[in-house]
Amino acid sequence: PKALDLIIHHDILGWMKDHGITSFHSVPSLMRHWLNQDDGIVLPSVKHIFSAGEPLTGDLCRQIRHAFPNA
Fold it and tell me: Cys-Cys link to 21, which of 8, 11, 16, 52 (CB 3.0-4.6 A)?
């Protein structure tokens, strides 16, 4: 699928899980949006996350640690 379709339809995390993605980059606000759309998803394949451009809050860090336990 096209990248924009994944973002618009809020299925990027499902796609990442299905394809065993191991690293990605996102601004915090987009990552927060994805995690809030699919609460409870866990992606153990993700090992590296790069996030920049905005403040990374403590609440979002907790969400990230839960969703990406091996990152």
Answer: 16
